[in-house]
Design brief:
Blueprint (H helix, E strand, L loop, with lengths): L10 H14 L13 E4 L4 E8 L2 E4 L2 E8 L2 E4 L4 E13 L2 E3 L2 E9 L4 E3 L2 E2 L5 E3 L4 E3 L2 E2 L47
Parallel strand pairs: 1-3, 2-4, 3-5, 4-6, 5-6, 6-7, 6-8, 7-9, 8-10, 8-11, 9-12, 10-13
Length: 185
Amino acid sequence: MEQLMTTKSTPLEETLQKRRTAEDAGGPGAPRHPSGNETFISPDTVIEGKILAKGELRIDGTFKGEILSSDRVLVGTGGKLEANVEARTMVVSGRVVGNVRILERLELLSTGEVYGDLETQPGALIIEKGARIEGRCSMGLKASDGRPAPEVRPAATARPAVKPGQGAEGLETRQQPPAAGPAHP
């Protein structure tokens, strides 16, 4: 008797499977590129440089540099980016260190981490319980505004998150003593 082995899917894999099922059926998630244009960075691969992608880009390995994509960028659970990213859509299930500018939709799944500034349009940010963001978030971007990319800092100098006891500019804050009121005998 043959036994089937099953493994538990990650949230990213489940999302991708649903999309691929829709694509296979020719539904709303059908490929925008007839050639099935996809780029994959596998788990044991480390790449440094600049990626200009017209199709879907999936990262399960490590990438350091800059990514400019006219399509979707997927960062798998084991994926690690030390990069500034500009893309149409992005799904993060791994770790991103750098600034992210997304034109249509940014999804941070429960295992996703972003350490850097986020910029997207109103209503385009989806954050699952458990996801982590440390940085600034701006949701004033319009998909058709044609503005140049925001000034980005290298991932190593991305603005750190404000820690407890610090003000918005990272300066230490102190509690002021309560104002002295009238003395009661």
